[in-house]
Amino acid sequence: MTVEYKLRIRTSTKLGAGTDANISVVLVGTRGESGPHVLDKPFHNDFEAGAEDVYSVQASDDVGALLLLRFGNTGGIAADWLLDHAWVTAGERQWSFPFFRWVRAGATVDVLEGTAKLARHAGCEREATARRELLEARRRMYPWRPAEATEGLPGALDLSEAQPLPKDELYRGLTEGSYEVVIARTLAAIKLHLPLLSKAWNGLVDIFDFFKGLEVPRLAPRWQDDLEFARQAVQGINPLHITLIPQLPQGMPLTDEDVKGVLSPGTTLARALDSKRIFLLDFDILEDIPMYRKVDEDGVEERRWAPAARCLLYLDDLRQLRPLAIQLGRDGGKDPVFTPNDDTYDWLAAKIYLRCSEGNTHQMVAHALRTHFVAEPFVMATMRNLPDPHPVYKLLRRHFRYTLAINEGARKGLLAAGGVFDDFIATGGPDKGHLQLGKKGYQRWKLTDNRPREDLEHRGVLDPAVLPYYPYRDDALPLWDALEEYVGGVLRYFYPTDADLEGDTEMQHWWKDLTEHGLPVDKLPCRELSRVDDLVDILTTVVFTVSVQHAAVNYLQYEHYAFVPNAPLCMRREPPRQKGTLCAEDLPEMIPSRSQTLWQVAIGRALSSFGDDEEYLLNEGGWREEYFQEPQVRALRERFEQRLRAQRDVVAARNAGAQVPYTVLSPDRIPCGITV
User: Fold this and answer.
1) Scanning 403, 410, 560, 594, which has the fewest C-beta atoms within 10 Å of its C-beta?
2) How many angstroms separate the Cα of 149 from the Cα of each of 60, 144, 152, 159?
3) Where in this chain does the record put each PLAT domain (predicted)?
């Protein structure tokens, strides 16, 4: 008996997604499979980018419930085809096949039916075999880097000329092209105006000429102000360090006389500490990290510094934070403590050095390590062990787009020997201090550190009564709660009991792969994957990390770093060891050179760019890549979107009256994953 199947096929809208190759399909079902059918309508250009094409396929027999569509691509010039989704109907029956990946020229690809299900719910051996074969192919595409190549760091994808990045992971473009293109265009825009700059470079003055073709960071007019300096601790590029302290740090000699007039009238240091009004920024992680040091062919030595600095902040009577004291080292006998009562140039220099220390720590630890590189093992374990119909694959896939591509780009372009970081960051250079810094950060890190509520509580700043103005905290926590409800709802729908998770062989392989090659088990909150609550916790942390946390530590880079005196990523002189020796002419000699400034502006702009196909947590019109079709999961997502809309409105209302807005964690501006 002949059966007619109607196929509706959507090609991605991305540039180059369409194909002129001949595309064929085989329908594979529980009763067998159809013969191959070429999908070609007369006088019609099939499979153009953004098109939905409908085809009728006649099968001589009913192949039963569809399990997969086997698409063949005959190949040719520019023949790769980016398939978004296919839908099939036969009478009253209908099936959905979400894919969102490439069908390469000359290849045959199985697209599995899209109902979310665990391996044990596969209805027949043919379906189980299709899942296994898909994963076998994926493991060949996503091999782990040898352990010795990632020693001291999270596991990563192994790439070479023979084993390139899978095309499914490649960039599909930022607003101005790839991030390398954004860098190049920024450099070109600045260089157009370089002839206008004086030959004697003064980074404190001439920096403004860099922005004749670019937007000027909003903090530029106020960067020297103490309140602006303190504001960046709670809503800047790295708002993860401020910590309430009960006593002065060891080795930091500071007396009431030193801060006379800075504390409130009648307040002593002891009283301020007791009343929870003193906070610490501490970059002790830089201690013993080698700094840039290189001798050129002419025997001229270049050195850079980013000291293991620390800073005390004081909450004044107006409940505003202001810097109280800065020490550019750990030795109380050698490293003086600077305060606002010191000479103007001493105090300004101390703040600049502190920001440099923060910047080096931020780039390698808070940003590169604690978002980019700790996410990669989860991408790898997911792609290698979870087939498309698995609910955890469906939950995570959109949050992993482009992560492997940007990580590899960072390794090659920024972190490798001779890379961009060698050109302008203090910890770069022949001794690879930046990599040692990343490894040191990883040694100290556990996944639970990325949970915002525990982190804030550990630092003593969870309570608004202690630290009233902390926009990062106030925006991050509601987003965590919304994510936890959504992720937990999805997982508990598919895993009603812990036994269901323990019996999921694919997830147990995922865990084994993750802990053997990606992250040691002591970095994770549990030693075995046996409780649904643990999985909810882990995956909520992962999704929060790649979306909310990455947005917080990434998308303010242009605003924070581009006006280089605010936060230079290297200092060209050793920190001052005595007070009262600096003058106005010294500061330009301390901060980055013209070429270093150029790189810092360009990198800051590139890494703050959004993609032209960016999907945000709260995406206008919904997420474009729809993986789930279950009504219960869609209801969970609608609830999630309602919470995000409410939070967006809260952020907008707060910023309407804010002197310095903080919008980076508005849900409609948070990309779903690490895309740059």
Assistant:
1) 594
2) 54, 10, 9, 11
3) 3-117
